[in-house]
Amino acid sequence: MPTHQPRRTPGPRGERFAVLDPTTGEAFDEAPDQRPDELDAIVERAHDAWRDWRADPAARTTALFAAADAVEAAGADLAPLLTREQGKPLAESYAEIARAAARLRYFAELDPVPEPIADGRPVRSEIRWRPLGPVAAIVPWNFPLQLASAKFAPALAAGNTMVLKPSPFTPLATRLLGSVLSAALPQNVLTIVTGREPLGARLASHPGIRHVTFTGSIATGRAVAEGAAASLARVTLELGGNDAAILLEDVEVERIADRLFWAAFRNCGQVCMAVKRVYAPARLYSQVVEALAERAKTVVVGPGLDPGSQLGPVSNAPQLARVERCTAQALADGARAAAGGHRLEGPGYFFAPTILADVPSGSPVVTEEQFGPVLPVLPYGRLDEAVEAANDTGFGLGGSVWGTDLDRAEAVAGRLECGTAWINHHAELSLAQPFAGIKDSGVGVAGGPWGLYGNLRPFVVHRPEEA
Ligand code: NAD
Fold first, then answer.
1. Predicted confidence band at 11 (pLDDT cuts at 50, 70, 90)?
2. Mean pLDDT score of the chain, rounded to an integer?
3. Residue 1's pLDDT band (cuts 50, 70, 90)
4. Starting at the edge strand that comes first in sequence, how are the strands of the sheet with 26-32 ordered?
5. Which stretches make up the Aldehyde dehydrogenase domain (predicted)?
6. Which residue among 18, 183, 259, 421 is least crowded, i.e. fewest CB within 10 A of its CB?
7. CA nearest 218: which of 290, 272, 164, 156?
8. Does the pLDDT of residue 227 top 80, yes or no?
C-alpha cells in the first residue's frame, strides 16, 4: 500500500488534494477530496437510477455504444491528461483509451440469455440473469482508464449502476472520462468519486452496495474484502502478481529479446502481469543478461509527452521508493546491475531501466512484487528447478515459457500455477477471455462472458408442465 497520499489543500471549492506530475514531482492540478459521508446520497442516487437502467436492455446497448464513441472522440483531451498525471508515453495513453472503447462495445453486445434447466423432471425450470444493484469499483493508478472500463463496461452492460473511485494519484483523467460518459449515459448510472482514504474503505463497506469490484494490491484487497463482509456484498479482487518467464534450452535469445524486454518494462514495469522474474538455462545465462541489458541501456527514458520517449517516469513517489528499496537490497545481497540500478538525476521520478544478474533467490526483488522498471534474471540447472522456483510464491497471476519447440513449451506452461500462461509472449489479453488470478492474486473472474456473469445473479423460475 502507498506509504503516503497526495497533499490535502483546503480551498474555496471545498476540500481538494494536489495531483502531482511524476515528470517533475510538482503539483499541477487538484481534485475534489470527497468525504466518506457524501457516499450515502451518491449510492442512493445510484440505486434510484438502477430502476430504469436495469429495465431496458436495448436502451442499455444503445447507450454503451454511444459511450464508446464518446470515449474515442475525447481521446485528444483524455490522453495528455492521463500521461501528465500517470507518466506513461502518450501513445500508451491513447492505447488505454482505445481499449476502453473496445471494451464498452464488447460488453454492449453480450446478452445474458435465459437458460432452461434440462434435468428430466416434469418441470420447466429456467435461469434468468438479473443485475445486482449499485456496484462499487476501486481501481489503482497504473492503467486508470483501462481498468476503470474493465469495471464499468461489464457492470453497466449487466444492468447495474456503479460508483467508481480512481486512485488519488490519478484522479483527473477518470473524472474527465466520467464527464465524457455522462453525455451518453443516464444520470447517476456511473458516478466517479475522488478522495483520499477512508473514502475507498467506506465505499467498499457501504450497505447500499451489492458488489465490490477491486483492482489493487493484495494488502488493500484483504481490507476491501473485510469491509464488504459487513454487508455481505459480492467481492471480485484483481490483485498483485510476480510473474515468472521461463526460457527453455532451445530459445533463440536474440529472436525473443525485444518481446521479453517489453513484457517486463512496458508502463515502466507497472503492470500487474509484467514479467517480473526471468529464469534462464545456465548455458544461456550470460547471453540473456547481455541481450536484456543492451535493450535497457538504449531504451529512451523521458517525459511521457515527448514523442520520442519509450519509457516515462515511475508513477509516484511511494512507488519509486519501493523500486529503490528492492534494488538497493538486491545490490546489497550481492546482485550485479548489468544495466541501471539507480534513480536518474534531475527532477521527477525517473529510474534507470535495470537488469539485475546474480541475484540471490530470496532477495525481495525476486520474492516481492517490486512493480517497477527492474528485472532480475536467475540461472537454472534442471528445468524442474525453474518450474518449482516459478511456482514457489504466494502470487498466481500469470507466467510464460519461451522456446522454439512449441509443444514442449506448452507442456511446461501447463505446469505453471497461475491464471494465465503464455508461450513466447506475455500479458497479452483478449477481451473475450476469462481473467482470474489464483492464490493471493485474486478472487472471482473478470473478462469475457465470465466478467458479465460476475455482475449478475441467477434467478430461477420453476413452472410445472400442467396446472
Ligand atoms: P493499492 O491497493 O494501494 O490501491 C488501489 C486502490 O485502492 C486505490 O484506488 C486506493 O486509493 C484504494 N484504497 C487504498 N486503501 C484502501 C482501503 N483501505 N479500502 C478501500 N480502498 C482503498 O494499489 P496501487 O498501488 O494503487 O496499485 C498497484 C497494485 O495494483 C499492484 O499490486 C498491482 O499488481 C495491482 N494491480 C492488479 C491488477 C490485476 O488485474 N490483478 C491490475 C492492475 C494493478
1. low
2. 96
3. very low
4. 8-11, 14-21, 26-32
5. 15-452
6. 183
7. 272
8. yes
Cα 238 to middle of ligand 1, angstroms: 9
pLDDT in tens, 357-383: 999 999 999 999 999 999 999 999 999
Domains of the chain: 8-239+439-461 (3.40.605.10), 243-423 (3.40.309.10)
7, 9, 15, 32, 135 from 12: Cα distances, Å? 16, 10, 8, 11, 32
Contact 281, 380 (CB under 8 A): yes
The closest residue, in CA terms, to atom 35 on ligand 1 is 216
pLDDT at 295 over 70: yes
Q: Which amino acid is at 55?
A: A
- Candidates 30, 92, 96, 238; catalytic one: 238
pLDDT, tens digit, 9 for 90 and up, residues 325-338: 999 999 999 999 99
Q: pLDDT over 90 for what percent of the chain?
A: 94
The owner of cell 455482475 is 455
Averaged pLDDT for residues 441-456: 97
Q: Which residues partner with 416 through β-bridges? A: none
Pocket test for ligand 1, best of 151, 174, 215, 237 (most atoms within 8 A of CB): 215
- For 66-91, letters b (16+ CB in 10 Å) and e give bbbebbbebbeebbbbbbbbbbbbbe
The Cα 83–Cα 178 span in angstroms is: 17
For 136, 256, 360, 389, 417, the CA distances from 396, given in Å and listed in that order, are 25, 24, 21, 13, 6
Q: Is the dihedral of CA 296, 297, 300, 302 positive or negative?
A: positive
CA distance 153 to 101: 9
pLDDT level of residue 3 (50, 70, 90 thresholds): very low
Residues with a CB atom less than 6 Å from ligand 1: 1-2, 138-142, 147, 165, 167-168, 197, 200-201, 204, 215-217, 220, 223-224, 238-241, 272, 369, 371, 397, 437, 442
Give the predicted TM-score (pTM) of the model.
0.96
417 is catalytic: no
Mutate to test the pocket of ligand 1, among 33, 139, 142, 222 (most ligand atoms within 8 A of CB): 142
